[in-house]
Amino acid sequence: MGRAPCCDKTSVKRGPWSPEEDELLRSYVHNHGTGGNWIALPHKAGLNRCGKSCRLRWLNYLRPDIKHGGYTEQEDRIICSLYNSIGSRWSIIASKLPGRTDNDVKNYWNTKLKKKATAMHQHHHHHQEYYHHQQPHSSGGGRGRRGAAAPRSQQCASSMQPSPASASSAVTTASASDACSFGAMYPSPPTTLQAAAPVLARYDGTLPPAPPQQQQASSLAEFSAAPAPPTGAISGTWAGGLPLDDMFLPELLGDSEFPPGGDFFGTGFAPLLLQDRAASASLQELSACYFPNAQAEMWAAADHHVNYVKPPPAGLCHSLT
DNA sequence: AATCAGCTCAACCGCGAAAGG
DNA sequence: ACCTTTCGCGGTTGAGCTGAT
What confidence score (pLDDT) does residue A12 get? Predict the structure, then answer.
């Protein structure tokens, strides 16, 4: 038996909204609010539309603080970094970008940013082949490099970071090529994954990796030359890793909340390590948004920890915006 | 000028989660 | 504890636009 439709699709108008309908909806919401019931709203507002359609129209187009287009480089970075870390959770990503909607960010990624990332990846690929050509005996050698150089096609698959998205069936995963390509574009902070690794590993039925030695890439050029982490592992050390606080979290939480240096995330689940309670709370909140299940398990396992600050139980993400 | 292909983005669809009875 | 209703989300679609031929 199928799911009952939310409304009678034969009796409501569908397709593009007219200016008159926009004005009806806008003025109704302005005067009465949504009333917490989108299903009943179209009837009250005199609209022959499905409630879901009204909600979508309001959230994605009529809401007063909406921005369309004109994405900045900083917004690109945030989208790419978050996509690499949490996958296609557009509502969370959009919540970090004031005035952007999940639909808008999703469209922007699918139509523009993904291609941009792919182009960057190909550029990165070219340079990496050149690097290997110039240094044929360097595998396992220099700073920040481990293991033999793999063909780029293999590297791409194996270097795709095991994002929380791919570790959870509840989240639609990003394709390997996507993650790989924008990993080259805006190297996602592997520290995010390092932070989540112990918990995620438990979900996978495998042991958590040993606490990694934090290695800081001194430049993007060094990142570009970095090899893949071990296949199939949640890598503890990834030579290409830039510290998370260098990459994007300051943009999300504010620089002042982060302790200096790169050791911050390197040795396990970061919230447990933070001495500063405010910073701990902020980061736990962020983690709770991204890894709610993992956090629940973590609370249970470490409820006694002195420096713990439990985030509020509901509406976690709202306070981050 | 006409046609076609590719792109963009608003809107739709269906699912899972949350809320309420 | 169960069922129903509603919400919110992510994936997908397709009409309209734009540029190339």
Answer: 85
Q: Is the CB of A108 under 7 A from strand C?
A: no
Q: Is the CB of A112 under 7 A from strand B?
A: yes
List bases, strand B, within 7 Å of protein CB. Answer: 7-17, 19
What pLDDT digit, counting tens, does each position of A117-176 carry? 777 766 666 666 555 544 433 333 223 233 333 333 333 333 334 333 333 333 333 444
Q: Is the pTM of this model over 0.85?
A: no
Nucleotide lying nearest to A60, CA to C1' measure:
B10
Does residue A58 lie within 7 Å of nucleic acid chain C, judged by its CB? no
- Average pLDDT value for chain A: 56
Protein-to-nucleotide distance from the CA of A100 to the C1' of C20, whole angstroms: 33
- Print the SS3 string covering chain A: CCCCCCCCCCCCECCCCCHHHHHHHHHHHHHHCCCCCCCCHHHHHCCCECHHHHHHHHHHHHCCCCCCCCCCHHHHHHHHHHHHHHCCCHHHHHHCCCCCCHHHHHHHHHHHHHHHHHHHHHHHHHHHHHHHHHCCCCCCCCCCCCCCCCCHHHHHHHHCCCCHHHHCCCCCCCCHHHHHHHHHHCCCCHHHHHHHHHHHHHHHCCCCCCCCCCCCCCCHHHHHCCCCCCCCCCCCCCCCCCCHHHHCHHHHHCHHHCCCCCCCCCCCCHHHHCCCHHHHHHHHHHHHHHCHHHHHHHHHHCCCCCCCCCCCCCCCCHHHC
pLDDT in tens, A269-302: 233 233 334 444 444 444 444 444 444 343 333 3
Verify if strand C has an atom below 7 Å from the CB of A103.
yes
Query: What is the CA A193 to C1' B19 distance in angstroms?
Result: 33
* CA to C1' distance (Å), from A39 to C1: 27
pLDDT tens for each residue of A87-102 = 889 999 999 998 999 9
